[in-house]
C-alpha cells in the first residue's frame, strides 16, 4: 500500500472506500475499495477533498482480486459449468446442466492451503440442477502476488469442480412378493421407482410382477438383462424372512455383486450388482416408504455412468443417517454428504 497524490494515481487501485457527504442530502460511498482509478475520477476525488489516497500500484508483480478470481476459475473449473461475472473479487460456478457434481477434494484442499486463496464448493457426488450454484472462488486481500498465482497454476494440475451429465437410461423393474403378484395388495413400489427415474430424465420401460419363487425371480431378472434396459431394479424380499429370496436370485444373475447391505438409514438392505455393464439393484422396502433413502444416494452416480465400488458404499456410513427433517430439502442437506 502506498500514499499517492491523486493526480498521479491513474491506473492504480484504490485501497479504501471514499465517502461522499453533502450535509442533509447525501452520505454514501463515492468510490469503492478495489476501484481502478481513471482520468475522469481525478476531479471527483479532488472535489471530495482527496489530494492523496492509498493505492496499490497496478504493476506486473501484483494481481487485482478481480483478475485473480478469473485465474482461479481457469485453474479449478472443469466440464459442465458456467460462471457469474466477477463481482467484488468473487466468481460463482453455476451448473450448466443437470448432473453429478464432482469435486477433486485432494486438489481442493491443496488449493486452499495457499493463504489468501478461497475455493469453496457444494458436496462431491451431489446431484445438481442446471442453474444451481456449486462453488465460489476469490482471494481474500485486494491484491495477490502474481508469482504466487503462477505457482498455484503450476501445482494445481487437475480440475477441481466439474459436472458429469446424467444419461437417459432405460429401466426394467422386477416386483417380487406373492402378496403383490396375487393382487392381495396393490403395487405401491413401481410408481415410486418410476417417479425417481423420471426426476433424472430416465425411464422405466418394463415392469413384471413375480411371486416369492427364486426360479421365477431369476428368470425375470435375466429377461430384464436381455432386454434393452440398462438397469434392472428388484423390489421386495430384500431382508431376512424365509420368503426373502431376492438377494440370492440377484447373485445368480450377476457377474459381480458389489455389496449387499449399505451403512445408510433408511436403506440398509440395499444390494448393488452388475451383469457386465448393466446394473442390478435390489431395493429394500424403505425406498418405497421414505421420501429419501440410500437409493437417492446411489442413483445419481449410476445415471452419471460411474461404476459403483464396494468402498463407495462403505464411505456412505459417514453422513448416511437421514435426519428426517420436517421439510425435506434433499439434496441440500447433510444426507449422504459425509464422504
Ligand atoms: N430381522 C430383520 N428384519 C428386517 C431387517 C433386518 O435387518 N433384520 N431389515 C428391515 C429393513 S431395514 C427393511 S427396509 C425391510 C426390507 O424389507 P423388504 O425389502 O424385504 O420388503 P418385504 O419384506 O418384501 O416387504 C415389506 C413390506 O412392504 C410391502 N411391500 C413390498 N413390496 C411392495 C409393493 N411392490 N407394493 C406394496 N407393498 C409392498 C410388503 O407387503 C410388506 O408389508 O426389512 C426389515 N426387516
Ligand atoms: O433397508 Mo431398511 O433399509 O433401512 O429401512
Automatic annotation (TrEMBL):
Gene Ontology MF annotations: metal ion binding; molybdopterin molybdotransferase activity
Residue span, MoaB/Mog domain: 172-304
Cofactor(s) required for function per UniProt: Mg(2+)
Pfam family, one: MoCF_biosynth
Keywords in alphabetical order: Magnesium, Metal-binding, Molybdenum, Molybdenum cofactor biosynthesis, Transferase
GO CC field: cytosol
Any Gene Ontology biological process: Mo-molybdopterin cofactor biosynthetic process
Name under which the protein is recorded: Molybdopterin molybdenumtransferase
Organism: Oceanirhabdus seepicola
Amino acid at each position: 500500500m502506498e500514499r499517492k497524490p491523486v493526480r498521479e494515481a491513474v491506473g492504480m487501485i484504490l485501497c479504501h472506500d471514499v465517502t461522499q457527504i453533502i450535509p442533509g442530502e447525501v452520505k454514501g460511498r463515492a468510490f469503492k475499495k478495489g476501484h481502478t482509478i481513471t482520468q475522469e475520477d481525478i476531479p471527483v476525488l479532488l472535489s471530495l477533498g482527496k489530494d492523496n489516497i492509498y493505492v496499490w500500484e497496478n504493476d506486473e508483480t501484483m494481481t487485482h482480486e478481480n483478475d485473480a478470481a478469473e485465474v482461479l476459475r481457469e485453474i479449478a473449473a472443469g466440464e459442465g459449468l458456467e460462471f457469474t461475472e466477477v463481482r467484488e473479487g468473487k466468481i460463482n460456478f453455476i451448473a450448466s446442466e443437470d448432473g453429478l457434481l464432482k469435486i477433486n477434494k485432494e486438489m481442493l484442499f491443496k488449493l486452499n492451503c495457499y493463504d489468501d486463496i478461497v475455493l469453496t464448493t457444494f458436496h462431491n457426488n451431489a446431484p445438481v440442477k442446471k442453474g444451481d450454484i456449486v462453488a465460489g472462488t476469490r482471494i481474500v486481500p485486494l491484491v495477490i502476488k502474481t508469482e504466487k498465482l503462477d505457482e498455484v497454476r503450476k501445482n494445481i494440475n487437475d480440475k477441481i469442480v466439474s459436472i458429469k451429465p446424467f444419461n437417459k437410461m432405460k429401466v426394467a423393474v422386477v416386483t417380487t412378493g406373492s402378496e403383490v403378484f396375487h393382487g392381495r395388495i396393490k403395487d405401491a413400489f413401481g410408481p415410486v421407482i418410476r417417479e425417481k427415474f423420471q426426476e433424472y430424465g430416465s425411464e422405466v420401460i418394463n415392469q413384471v410382477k413375480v411371486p416369492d419363487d427364486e426360479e421365477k425371480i431369476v428368470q425375470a431378472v435375466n429377461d430384464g438383462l436381455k432386454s434393452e434396459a440398462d438397469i434392472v431394479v428388484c423390489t421386495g424380499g430384500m431382508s431376512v424372512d424365509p420368503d426373502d429370496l431376492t438377494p440370492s436370485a440377484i447373485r445368480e444373475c450377476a457377474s459381480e455383486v458389489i455389496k449387499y447391505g449399505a451403512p445408510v438409514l433408511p436403506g440398509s438392505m440395499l444390494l448393488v450388482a452388475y451383469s457386465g455393464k448393466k446394473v442390478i439393484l435390489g431395493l429394500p422396502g424403505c425406498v418405497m416408504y421414505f421420501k429419501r433413502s440410500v437409493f437417492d444416494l446411489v442413483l445419481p452416480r449410476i445415471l452419471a455412468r460411474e461404476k459403483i465400488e464396494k468402498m463407495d458404499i462403505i464411505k456412505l456410513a459417514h453422513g448416511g443417517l437421514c435426519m428426517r427433517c420436517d421439510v425435506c430439502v434433499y439434496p441440500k442437506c447433510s444426507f449422504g454428504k459425509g464422504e
